[in-house]
Structure formats: structure tokens, C-alpha cells
Amino acid sequence: MDKKTMKDIIQHKVEKIQPVIYGIAEYLHSHPEVGTEERMAADYLRHVLTTAGFSVTPLVPEKFPTAFHAVIGNGPFQMGFLAEYDALPEMGHACGHNLIAAMSVGAAIAFAAAAEENATIHVYGCPAEETAGSKVYMSEQHVFDMLDAAVIIHPSSETAIGGTSYATHPLQFTFTGKSAHVADPDYHGINALDALVDFYSRLKKLDTTFTEPHIIGAIITEGGLVPNIIPHRGVLKATIRALKTEYLEHTMLPQIRELAKQTAEEHGTALEMVHYEPLCKDMINDPRMDVYFAENFNLLHEKFAVKDDTYASGSTDVGNVSYDTRVCQPEIEIGEDIAAHTLGFASAAGSVYGKMQALTGAKAMAMVAVDVLFEPEFQQ
Ligand SMILES: [Zn+2]
Ligand SMILES: [Zn+2]
Fold first, then answer.
1. What is the mean pLDDT of residues 87-109?
2. Angle at which helices 253-267 and 192-207 pack, to 10 degrees?
3. What whole-number distance in Å separates Cα of residue 357 and Cα of residue 331?
4. What is the whole-number distance in angstroms between the Cα of residue 338 and the centre of ligand 2?
5. Percentage, residues of the chain above pLDDT 70
């Protein structure tokens, strides 16, 4: 079968399963569940995929009971579709992950219809993108290693290809001293807040010496209980980010850790450093797949912008997958002048237009999978 025939089959299949794609988008939207609690969403998606002939098994259940792995086909080409389905507290699907699930499942079903015996098609149910970042753990467990490529599309205020995301290391520093009455003439204690504030201002200075694109955000979350007791404990939380994982891990973090140690030593406090959220790597969009998305968006009459490789607005656990296999994560427009994590975005994610765009997204993803399949290295 040639490429064009396969892409025609995909477009027809997506139109045919429109009720399935809309069904996912609507059900998840009207039953929003936050990260690691997406039981109804995961059950619904498992059911849809089982009905479509996929065999569905738990994936990393020891850590994420709402994760799953669905497989169909047994061809040599291993294609992954990444589904997310967590919502935000009190806002519902304000990041549009209901549409991500709808697109990825729809695309996988359509690609399976076209690829026949040439491919093995995987759908990864990836919970908690907004919080625990299940893909970070999945990546550590090597679940993506055998893939030839993977795709995911994120809803947005414009359709766009390219860009990256920040590698991020959320680090908590706890300085521990000794409490004492501030007025006790004989016993002065060790002021952990002094150490912490000193570290905070030195961190600000160090920040200005880093030469590659980066961000350091820091707040003091504990700095004493009452003013007449010398604070014995001070806690600072920082989100330390860089456009490149390598720069973050090998240049920034060692210097920041060393600075914290030095400061603690000078003040005579103990110091503990722990990361309190998952460690996301930067997103490397596969350049060839970027081009395929551009070609297929053109075929589907979907206008798009192209973002610079250094453009990043946030962090995502898809970045970790991009270190395991070729990945591409473009964005698709579901409404104008909307910003993620707002109620306006949540209503766009439940709109008729949002669902129509999910059809375009599902088609584009499956058609890109065809383009990868037709690369010489996958043709014998
Ligand atoms: Zn989000
Ligand atoms: Zn999101």
C-alpha cells in the first residue's frame, strides 16, 4: 500500500470514529479528575481501546494505578501515541488533556486501520502530567525505549510546530539551626533564617553568572514561628530550569548545591536538599517529524506557526520521553485568545470547535506516523 492510500484510509477512519473521539473528549470534560485520581478517565479509555481490538494492560501500577498500555498489531515498526487525561483542581480540563486523550486514542485506532501488519501500535495512558509527571517514572522504567517514534498534540491558542520546554529541577533546601529565646543573654541558638536569607541573596547573585538560557524561581516557605524565638528551621523552595538538561545538571545544579553547603557551613546550620517534584528534561522535537507535521497540517488545510528551537514557555514530562525515542509534540488551536490553566481554556476544551480540531489533530498524528513508517530505514 502506498503512502497516499494509507493517509486516505486514516482520514476516512477518523471521520468514521468521530463519535468515539467526541465521546472521549466529552466524557473526560464532564468528569474531570486531577492527577493520579483519573480512575473514570482511565477506565473509559481502556474500554474504548479494548472495544477497538487493543489489548490493554496495566503500566507501572506500583506507582500509577491509572496508567495503562494498549497494544494492537505485531509489525516491526513500533509507533507510540501518548495520552494524557488529568484535569486541574477546581478548573476542570483547563489544559485540554481531555482532547489530548481523544486525539491520541483516535489517531492510534486510525493508524492501526491503515498500517495493518506493518506496525505495532502502542497507546500509553500517562496520568498526572500536571503533578507527578508519570512519564518521568515511565522513562526511568524504560517503557519507551523500544519505540521507533511517538507523537502527542497539545491544545493551544494557535496551531504551532517546533519549540522546546524547560528542563526543570525543583529543589527544596532546609537549613536547621537551634532555637533559643531572642533575649536570653547566655544562649543564642543558631539562626536558620539568617542562613537561609544569606543563601537566598547569594543565589540571586549566582543566578546572574549563568550564561545559557535559564530561570531560577525561589520562595521562602518557612522562616520561624514567632519573633521572640530564634528560628531553628528555614525552608526555601526553588524551581531551577534551563533550556538544556545538560546545562541544568552539569553546570547550574553543582554550583547551587555547593553554594548552599558553603552557606550552611558558615552559619553552623545543618542542610538538607531534596527534589520535591519530578525532574523534567527539555523537549527535543524530532526535526524530521516537525516537517511531517507541517506537510500534513497543510494537507488538512490547518494553518500553523513555526516556533524557534529556543522558544519555551513551560516544562513537560514529554521532554523525558524525547530522550528515549523520537518524539514530536506540536500544538493545535482550539480557540483564540485563550491561555492554558484558565476557565476560558477549559470551556474551549469542551467546545464543538475544540472537538472538531481534535479530529484534525488525530488525522495529523496518524498521518505523521505513516510518514515515519515510510522512511527508508523502516522499509525492507
Ligand atoms: Zn497544563
Ligand atoms: Zn497540558
1. 98
2. 150
3. 11
4. 13
5. 100
Sign of torsion over alpha carbons 191, 197, 202, 203: positive
Q: Which residue has the cell 543565589?
A: 203
Angle in degrees, 0-180, between the axes of helices 97-115 and 39-51, rounded to the nearest 10: 20
Cα-Cα-Cα-Cα dihedral of 27, 31, 32, 33, to 10°?
A: -110
CATH architecture classification, 167-275: 2-Layer Sandwich (3.30)
User: Residue 366: what pLDDT?
Assistant: 98
CA of 257 to the centre of ligand 1 (A): 29
Q: Ligand 2: distance of its center to the CA of 315 in Å?
A: 10
**Domain 3-165+282-378 carries which CATH code?**
3.40.630.10
**238 confidence band (pLDDT: 50, 70, 90):** very high
CA 360 – ligand 2 centroid, Å? 18
| Distance in Å, CA 336 to ligand 1 centroid | 17
Domain positions in the chain: 3-165+282-378, 167-275
**Banded pLDDT at 256 (limits 50, 70, 90):** very high
Spacing, Cα 351 to ligand 1 middle (Å): 18
Whether residue 86 is predicted with pLDDT greater than 70 in this model: the reply is yes
What percent of the chain stands above pLDDT 90? 95
Q: What's the rounded Cα separation, in Å, for the pair 276 and 257?
A: 15
